[in-house]
Design brief:
With 57 residues, the protein is mainly alpha-helical. It has one domain. The chain has two helices and no strands. The radius of gyration is 25 Å and the shape is rod-shaped. The model has no long low-confidence stretch (mean pLDDT 94).
Length: 57
């Protein structure tokens, strides 16, 4: 029983290490621009340059 507990704890430690690696290397989806986001930004920039919008600050 003690040996089984050691094996389980080792496997859990391995899983935790893998999860930590994944969390540190995963892309943050909130920082990735979609094609739609890019089009919206380009349209907003165009509107600003044409004087259709203005800065709030």
């Amino acid at each position: 029983m003690v040996e089984e507990s050691k094996i389980i704890m080792q496997k859990l430690d391995d899983i935790k290490s893998e999860l930590d690696y994944i969390k540190n290397h995963i892309a943050d989806v909130d920082t990735i621009l979609t094609e739609e986001d890019i089009e919206s930004l380009e349209e907003a920039d165009k509107d600003f340059k044409e004087g259709k919008t203005k800065r709030l600050t």
